[in-house]
């Protein structure tokens, strides 16, 4: 069960849940209450109609309504028109109360008089675990094996040649809407030879927040350190490392070891599942409740295997890595 503290805004206006799905709606700002925080729990990280009565918010069953975008509405000669940047929104109902959750931050309401809401009954990934796509070959003590075949008790071999037992493996399958508003769903494609010749030795797909281990000239030149971690998304260069929006369905898999390690995935160094310490909780992932129930010694979380590059540093490294693929 995934668990995350999220910020929501209650909607107290006159429209019922079904009305919110009937084409574009304009909701005046005085129909919304004050921002509040609560705990959302979901079994697979993607909130949808399939989760009705199963997912909970502050311990109460969720009735999923839909997801889409909201755009600030401004007054122009007595008419409310959408003007400004649209932001993603997830809308659900709990105990008769409708809530709006903005996964990427609230809209800019400066000068706005309303929100123009455009949502559909489409699921939304509210948590973004660190995952490899099915088919990724992980180095083990028996050679490379597809990640979907690796189970608890198997042994993986890290980038430095050290062996680690797998404590836990997880998997899930996602259908990906072909809609630009849902870019966070799409995997990052790391092309063959993107990091250097033979690394990776085949095209590799990762979730956007999955971090790669970088060392060598690029890392030293930009960060001043011998090595660093950088999320796949932060390295995008639209050539050798890019979002793959052609994918319509993907199976994601992750592996947990007793500590944070650098796995070898298709010949490329990439992290194992990381459990944060209590004061270092990532925005979209908290598996600790489930994992700690199985492995109490992980209650204090983990330390990163090495430092993470800043976003601006990773972006420069990504541009330096841009090259033709063999």
From TrEMBL:
Region forming the signal peptide: none
SUPFAM superfamilies, per the entry: Hedgehog/intein (Hint) domain
Transmembrane segments: none
InterPro entries cross-referenced by the UniProt entry: Hedgehog/Intein_dom, Hint_dom_sf
Coiled-coil regions, chain positions: none
Annotated source species: Thalassovita litoralis
Domain Hedgehog/Intein (Hint): 130-274
Pfam families: Hint_2 (PF13403)
UniProt name for this protein: Hint domain-containing protein
